[in-house]
Design brief:
heterodimer; A: 433 residues; alpha/beta; Rossmann fold; Dimethylsulfoxide Reductase, domain 2; 2 domains; nine-stranded mixed β-sheet; five-stranded parallel β-sheet; B: 148 residues; Barwin-like endoglucanases; six-stranded mixed β-sheet; 5 helices
């Protein structure tokens, strides 16, 4: 049986045009998906898939029953005085809702991947606002596409072919031929190789280049050389931006992770706002996971803050640098963690992982990862978009429904939302006693 | 020992290069990240590498696939050197993962985002081994005796 218009639960492109062939209610073939998506669909069928709850006893994992696992998780979280609820970018918005309830109930702390990836973009957005559009508008209108500190060929493989570069839109003419692709990066990436214009800048100098572009647009003199580019190159870039019909900048982690961080992004939003005096210009952050934008949405409408929310005082507090996951772990301020469909042990700096190794960890995941190896309790995860239905937000903040195509390989739970609700109810029960 | 050529001399003298550390996604690392092979050798092959401009390999007196040691204010890590013309001469590129995170700092400058890009790094040739993912985890575990 062939199922069409399947959603891909991997990167921020959130592709919704995948076709899956089912044989015997198993995924036989996946069509139209990128190399990363292929891996995730394959992972759902893997013999390595975690299908039973595991508890660490004397350094070894032993299988335990579902009820014992829920009880154990509730025990760990109710004993802790400040738990961390981390991950969320690869699960549904419905599960996030229960996650926020859990953080509130236990006076814990909730944060996701967005904190240490595009957190600075959100801080920039809060201070100056964001002139933005949807990916559909990029496809139909854009004749100038700028990838700034972003390498979509390796991080979002279908971004260029689905939205920005190759498709023929209503007003974007012949597709690739009528679009100009500009790449600004410190490395000559694979994306730079297929661009029309490539500007190689010095590391940690994005802020200077953005300021220089703003100066050129305002008719001010700039120095002979800024950020490793000469005056002619910068003037050419500013003219290209000014003279396009519909431009868009995709902001990558090159801006948010290097020196300046939120200031880089804030400055860029100012530049894009200024460009709207000449033409139509927009900016979209290149969000990494398919639902990393979802946590910002759900947290904002539940607590008023987009990420890094601390319920330690019983009400939501937000102060990046203080209540953000990297800072809170580096200072060793949490005493238990629930990690959901994420791998912080692989992706956090050493000092943070050293603290994680000292505290009890519950991880909900699909297969064994470095994080499950350091965990005390492993709960089988359900893949939203393959085993379960759920809402997710694409990188341009468009909500989509992730389809369910097969049953999960166990029957004790049907979604991450259901699992978390059971843990929530158990903690509540313990509190009442 | 008398060095047989210039390369060995550079190695013996212990040339150290001061560069900028850039981490990020690569296709191979992204593929493993989404697969069920995060505890296998594939992860090490895709993420425990350090991309350097060919001229920097020459300066260090090493060939491709030799090991290099990266040292920052946070610690040091051994990675496999890979020549890449896409990498500028003033920096190195390492795919994100548990290896490079051993040298990444935690100062977020009030933003929540650590310096995954832009840290100063000292690169030198080494004959030390690249730690496996199991060894890295073991090291984290041994910091705390109570956990298995």
């Amino acid at each position: 049986m062939m199922i069409s218009d399947v959603t891909c639960p991997v990167c921020g492109c959130g592709c919704d045009d995948i076709r899956v062939q089912l044989d015997d209610s198993k995924i036989a073939k996946v069509y139209g998906v990128c190399i990363m998506g292929q891996q995730k669909f394959r992972k759902s069928q893997s013999p390595e898939r975690i299908t039973k709850p595991l508890k660490k006893e004397d350094g070894k994992f032993v299988e335990i029953s579902w009820d014992d696992a829920i009880n154990e998780a509730a025990e760990i979280l109710s004993k802790a005085s400040h738990s961390l609820f981390y991950g969320w970018s690869e699960t549904s918005c419905e599960a996030m809702k229960v996650g926020i309830d859990l953080a509130e109930l236990t006076h814990g702390f909730i944060d996701g991947q967005s904190s240490h990836c595009h957190g600075p973009s959100i801080i920039g957005e809060q201070s100056v606002g964001i002139p933005s559009c949807t990916l559909g508008m990029v496809m139909n209108y854009a004749d100038l596409v700028i990838y700034w500190g972003s390498n979509p060929i390796e991080s979002h493989p279908r971004h260029m072919s689905r939205f920005s570069t190759y498709p023929r839109g209503i007003y974007s003419g012949e597709g690739r031929r009528d679009r100009k692709i500009v790449v600004i990066d410190t490395r000559k990436t694979l994306t730079a190789n297929v661009s029309n214009l490539f500007f190689q800048i010095k590391p940690n100098s994005d802020f200077e280049l953005i300021s220089a572009l703003r100066m050129v647009l305002n008719g001010k003199e700039i120095p002979d050389e800024v950020a490793g580019l000469n005056r002619e190159e910068i003037t050419k870039l500013a003219d290209t931006m000014k003279n396009c019909g519909y431009g868009v900048v995709f902001v990558g982690l090159g801006l948010t992770h290097s020196k300046g961080k939120s200031n880089n992004v804030e400055n860029l939003y100012h530049l894009v706002r200024r460009l709207n005096d000449f033409t139509r210009f927009n900016v979209i952050p290149m969000r990494g996971h398919y639902n990393v934008a979802g946590l910002n949405q759900v947290l904002t409408w539940r607590t008023g803050y987009p990420f890094a929310v601390d319920f330690f005082r019983g009400y939501p507090c937000y102060n990046p640098g203080e209540t953000s996951v990297i800072d809170i772990l580096a200072r060793g301020e949490v005493d238990a963690m629930l990690s959901i469909s994420s791998d912080p042990v692989s992706h956090f700096p050493k000092k943070c992982v050293e603290h994680l190794a000292e505290i009890p960890i519950i991880s909900m995941d699909i297969v064994r990862t470095p994080t499950t190896e350091l965990s005390d309790l492993v709960i089988p995860g359900v893949i939203t978009g393959i085993d379960a239905v759920g809402t997710y937000y694409r990188m341009d903040n468009i909500p989509l429904i992730a389809k369910k195509i097969i049953e999960p390989p166990f029957d004790f739970t049907h979604s991450d939302e259901e699992t978390l609700k059971k843990i929530y109810d158990k903690i509540l029960e313990k509190k009442k006693k | 020992m008398i060095p047989s050529d210039l390369k060995d001399l550079k190695k013996m003298l212990g040339v150290k290069l001061k560069l900028v550390l850039n981490t990020g996604s690569s296709m191979k690392q992204g593929k493993v990240m989404r697969s069920d092979k995060k505890l296998s050798d594939d992860y090490q092959k895709s993420a425990a590498i350090c991309m350097l401009h060919p001229s920097n390999l020459n300066k260090l007196g090493i060939k491709e696939n030799d090991n290099v040691k990266l040292k920052t204010s946070e610690g040091s890590i051994v990675l496999k050197a890979v020549a890449s013309k896409s990498c500028p001469e003033d920096s190195v590129f390492v795919p994100k993962g548990p290896w490079v995170n051993l040298v990444i700092g935690t100062k977020t400058q009030q933003t929540g985002s650590p310096p995954y890009k832009g840290m100063e790094v000292e690169v030198e040739a080494t004959s030390d081994k690249i730690p496996s993912i199991g060894e890295i985890l073991q090291k984290y575990r041994s910091k705390n005796e109570t956990k298995g």
